[in-house]
């Protein structure tokens, strides 16, 4: 089962693209190290305080995929410098 999540996020304290990318790089690296997922910034690359992340997990069962994706979203929510807003799920 392939699970795909798109989540838009706000980074309030970023005053430049360099600061935004530093925050995103730290978050994406930790997500990839801790969970069996792939993650990438898929939109708003030229906007300082906004981003859209794409997260994909593949397992043999839908429940395992859901757990992995929800854990990844919980980790994103645990970072104080980023706020997750719009989140959508797709299943393949």
Automatic annotation (TrEMBL):
A Pfam family that the UniProt record links to this protein: DUF503
Listed PANTHER family: DUF503 DOMAIN-CONTAINING PROTEIN (PTHR36441:SF1), HYPOTHETICAL CYTOSOLIC PROTEIN (PTHR36441)
Report the protein name in the record.
DUF503 domain-containing protein
Q: In which organism is this protein found?
A: Anoxybacteroides amylolyticum
